[in-house]
Every structure is written in C-alpha cells, then in structure tokens.
Amino acid sequence: MTPTLVRQHQHLAPPAAHGHRDAYARARDWAEIQERMLVPLYEAVYARLEIGTGDRLLGLGCGSGLALLMAAARGASVTGTDTDGRRLALAEERLRPGTAPHGSPADGPRVVGGGPAAVAAEGGPRFTAVTAFDPQSGADGELVPMLTAAAALAERGSPVVIAGWGPPERCATASVLRAATRQAARPPDLGPGYGSAPGGWRPYGRDALEEAAHRAGLRPDGSGRLSCPFGYADPESAVRGLLSTGLFDAAAEAADEAQVEKELAEALHPYVRRDGTVWMPNVFRYLIARV
Question: Is the keyword tRNA processing in the record (predicted)?
C-alpha cells in the first residue's frame, strides 16, 4: 500500500518578506543552508530515545522537515506542525512517499499547518514521542501552551524533547545574533520592550528548559549537551542562512535589510577562516521530559 502525504496549510502565518529577499527565498535558504546546522541535535536525540519502527513522532515547529525525514528514515511514523506555509511546502517535498530509505509507515507522513490543536482536529492515534527542536520556540511565550497541548496528544510516559541554546559564552553565534537585538531595540522613550520584538534572539537561562517543562505539567527525565557548530561555505551563505531563521526580521523592520546585512557581515568577520569558510562553534542543550 502506497502511503499518502497529508497536508493542511490553512490558517498559516508566514513571515513577512524584507527587501529583495522574499519569503519564498528565505524558506529555501532555511532548507538548503540553515536547517542542517541542527543535524547533530536531531541525531543525538533520536539515538538516545532509540526512535525507530513503531514510534509515532510529533515534531513541533518542524520547518522544512529535515528532522522528520531523519526520523522517518529510522522507521518512525512522523507528523510535523509549523505556522510557516512556505517551509511546510518544502517539508512536503522532502516527505513524499518513497523518500525514506526504509520505506514510509502505512499511515504515511503528515505536515499540518498550525500547532497541536490542528493535529488534534484531524484525529489519529496518540504519539509516542514529541520534539520541539526549534531553539527559539519559546521566544514569544508560546512554548508552554504548545507543549501542554502536544502532551495531551501523547501516550502517558512518552518523551517530550525541548531544545535550546547553551551558555552564550560557549556559543560563538550568540555574538552574531546580538546584532539582531541591537537593531530591533526600541528607542528609550518608547518605554518597556527594549530588544523584545517577537522572534528576536534571547539567551537561555540555566534552568529555562526545566522551568518550561514544569509549567507544561511535564516531568524532567534527563538532559544532554552537544556540539552544534554552524558552518558555511562563505560569508554570503552565512548571511543568507542566518537571515532565514527569522531572528533578524524585527531588526529589518526597525532599520532596513541592507543595514542589517551589513552589520551581520561585519559580526561574522572573526569567524571567517583563511579558506573563506565561516565556522562558529556552539553548544546546544536538550531536555527530555515525560508526559
């Protein structure tokens, strides 16, 4: 039986485009340049949880589907959610039947526009694992409600994985991302909210992941740290990849994209190697909690 890919793209909130880099180009840059930077994270989590045949995995903020594809390649049945319709369209391309080396499960992969509520509306069996790999998923205060809703769709005892940045001093990319915060900062006379534009980068507190899990009614059950370097072929690729994260959108609105690109390129100078490649060592952290 050939599985079908279920798609639901309604009620999406795609990111705004800035300057000459339209939203479709941004989504493609994410899929082709930036998303692969988190592959070490995906691999470490799937290996630790022994994700494989018989697992039903829900990926929150699945982007263009690379993490889902890797789980499907291990034999898992995968469902992904995201609010970016353009990234979901690319995930759909990746998850077409027959793309997974071991074959897709009988019920097929799914990408669903929105969040856990949209998945719940479609019905289906409960999940055996949930992942929230996007390190900025909690930037707008939506992480806890999202985890709470996702936990209601999982079997009791199932793991829920939350990922985040490690200490800023161990993340070379942190100094580059601060450029976005500076550009997006409001003038002092506008009152509270300095540097707090939605989607902007924020460093993680030491117990931030545990606190989010507790607030969502989950039980922490282990954690890990791993090296997750960001490497690019050249500075231009690095600028395009970092802009595709959406972390610089507020800065582009506050200033203009050309200025943001200029400051970003300057911030990357210390990480350009002699051969012209860009290399930024980072440490990421993940928490495994239980429903």
Answer: no
